[in-house]
Amino acid sequence: MSIRRDQALRALMPFVDKDDIVVAVYQTNFDWMALNPRALNYVGVGAMGQASSHGLGLALANPDRRVFVFDGDGSLLMNLGSLVTVANANVANFYHFLFANRVYEVNGSHPLPGADKVDFTGFAAAAGYLGAQEFDSLNTFSNALPSFLGAQGPQFTTLNVVAGEAYPRDYDYIHSTAARNSFRQALNQR
């Protein structure tokens, strides 16, 4: 069983406060921007493997804001060492969501190496995240969100997902100066 990615994002939307930072990559980023456009959405597409590292920097620099990282399994596979770095930094405001579909979706849905063997939740737990869990049911995930987000970070959740509704891939916007300026201005308003 798997969760539709857009349904998982919709379940998360009520829990993301206006001052929270969301770092999302690749198709999850495009889906999130379509579902919940906001100035504190950090667009990290093009930096494959760097979502957790960018999120960590933002969490360290903004300890009074929660940072949500919406990562992809193919992306995280490029930078597994970041799990240890995040855990070692002991960032209480860091919530890492891995949207695992076992393919490199925006690059043609090429299969992820070791897709049927890799255990990202186990990696996060072994790295030292304070919590690491996995979901393949939307209802179970939705019910767990309040306790998950009420726990001190760093926290890690693997969501076994399928694509769901297709949202536009607006590469022009995510690579634009306007996107960076909008985020920077919102970040510096406090």
Please tell me about this protein's structure.
There is one protein chain. The protein has 190 residues and is α/β, with parallel strands linked by helices. It has a single domain, classed as 3-Layer(aba) Sandwich (Rossmann fold). Helix content is 42%, strand content 21%. It contains 9 helices and 9 strands. Strand 2, helix 2 and strand 3 form a beta-alpha-beta unit. The radius of gyration is 15 Å and the shape is globular.
Number of helices, where a helix is a run of at least 4 consecutive DSSP H or I residues: 9
- What is the correct CATH architecture? 3-Layer(aba) Sandwich
Biggest β-sheet, characterized? 7 strands, parallel
Any idea of the CATH class? Answer: Alpha Beta
Low-confidence stretches: none
Overall 3D geometry?
globular
**What number is the mean pLDDT?**
88
Topology diagram in text:
Blueprint: E1 3-4, H1 5-12, E2 21-24, H2 26-35, E3 41-43, H3 51-61, E4 67-72, H4 73-77, H5 81-89, E5 94-100, E6 103-104, E7 110-111, H6 120-127, E8 131-135, H7 138-150, E9 155-162, H8 171-174, H9 177-187
